[in-house]
Design brief:
12 helices
């Protein structure tokens, strides 16, 4: 019976890994193709740079209900693409820990992931609201989707850098870097326990990275290079042996970048 359960768990883990990989691939494909926003807007910028007749129309779209829904979708898919890869080890560890505690060869892993993504959905809604407000006040380019204000860029960079050096960053990063201790502390059985654990884990990851995501306002919210760079950086912080040192070094670098933005 034990071998049968272990085989079922191994199958469940394989399916989970495949599902996570597929979800991440789809999200990255969506970003790369610029579905709905990126490609058309950047194409318009290339074809009609500084066209005074098109900029107001595109800018006003961001504040509309369809425009907000599109911006929210962009952010949420982007967060899935960026954050799910570094969460995968915790997801797989949860499946094994749940099996060991309950004997269930098919633990509610999908519900755990759902809780995690709900947190990033909430963040995406706030980010979309922020982007709409910034565009409405001409602080962010409607077509370039990046900061149009030196002061805004500097404030974001300085805030992100300071946060990288803060005790809150330390606490959240420590939890993300030690999934075994996190699961041991917060685990509850069943579907309700799974979504609760996903929400808590998402909260820690959000606490660890939310100001880093603000850098996208500086580099461009649909800039593929910036998205990829931040994805790798978040994974390095969480998974490499000296993640805390990486965070400290990046904090110093971001503060320097923010100061340079004001002075240059």
């Amino acid at each position: 019976m034990g071998r049968i359960a272990e085989a079922a768990l191994a199958r469940h883990r394989a399916i989970t890994m495949a599902a996570l990989a597929l979800l991440v691939i789809i999200a990255w494909a969506w970003i790369a193709l610029g579905a709905g926003m990126g490609m058309p807007i950047h194409a318009a910028l290339a074809l009609f740079p500084h066209n005074p007749t098109t900029m107001p129309a595109i800018g006003s779209m961001a504040g509309s209900t369809p425009g907000f829904a599109l911006t929210f979708s962009m952010w949420w898919v982007m967060m899935i693409a960026m954050m799910l890869p570094s969460a995968a080890p915790t997801v797989l560890l949860y499946a094994r820990a749940s099996h060991r505690r309950t004997g269930d060869p098919e633990p509610p892993t999908a519900i755990f992931v759902l809780g995690y993504l709900i947190v990033w959905g909430g963040f995406s809604a706030l980010a979309a609201l922020g982007q709409s407000w910034l565009q409405a006040h001409a602080l962010m380019g409607a077509m370039t989707m990046q900061s149009a204000s030196r002061w805004l860029s500097a404030i974001v960079l300085l805030a992100a850098g300071a946060f990288q050096l803060s005790p809150l960053k330390d606490a959240c990063l420590a939890s993300c870097r030690n999934p075994a201790a996190f699961i041991s502390r917060h685990y509850r059985p069943g579907a309700a326990g799974a979504i609760r654990l996903g929400l808590i884990h998402g909260g820690y990851c959000l606490g660890c990275c939310w100001l880093l995501m603000g850098i996208l306002f500086v580099g461009g919210t649909m800039n593929l290079a910036w998205i990829a760079l931040l994805t790798l950086f978040v994974a390095a912080e969480k998974m490499l042996p000296h993640g805390r040192r990486i965070a400290i070094a990046s904090g110093i670098g971001l503060i320097g970048w923010g100061v340079a933005t004001l002075l240059v």
